[in-house]
Amino acid sequence: MIKESLVSLQHAILSVKGGLFIKNLEEGSVYLLVYVNDILIAAKTTDNVNTVKVTLVTTFDARDFGDASYFLGWEIKRDRARRIMKVSQAKMTSSLISK
């Protein structure tokens, strides 16, 4: 259902398995990574992210949990002032090693 709804909202599918979508806006592209009922949104500007969020919240029974810090085993850390984003799987790797 999410896949069909995103396509109907003019999000193009970017992956063979259908979990990565792109929405082209005049101000730039917005990327959506979808896994079951979780959606990670990325764009150059917060305005573009917010535009897509409004559409998603009005289309689905969705909630905004704010900035992502963890998604599918990835730890996400940002330094907005320096425009840096770091993604790692250190937590998951440590968990696997300790088993």
How would you portray this structure in words?
- With 99 residues, this protein is an alpha+beta fold.
- The protein has 2 domains: 1-66, no CATH class; 67-99, no CATH class.
- The chain is 30% helix and 35% strand.
- It has helices at 2-8, 46-59, 90-98, and strands spanning 12-13, 20-25, 28-35, 38-43, 70-71, 74-79, 84-88.
- Strands 1-2-3-4 form a 4-stranded antiparallel β-sheet, with helices on one face. Strands 5-6-7 form a 3-stranded antiparallel β-sheet.
- A hairpin with a 6-residue loop joins strand 1 (12-13) and strand 2 (20-25).
- It is globular and about 45 Å long.
- The termini are far apart.
Structural class from helices and strands? alpha+beta
What topology, given as strand order, has the largest sheet?
1-2-3-4
- Gyration radius (Cα, Å) is 15 Å
Query: In total, how many domains does the architecture comprise?
Result: 2
Helix content: 25-40%
How much β-strand is present in the residues? Answer: 35-45%
Extended strand count: 7
Short overview:
The chain is α+β, with helices and mostly antiparallel strands. The chain has helices at 2-8, 46-59, 90-98; strands at 12-13, 20-25, 28-35, 38-43, 70-71, 74-79, 84-88.
Which labels suit this protein?
99 residues; four-stranded antiparallel beta sheet; three-stranded antiparallel beta sheet; 7 strands; globular
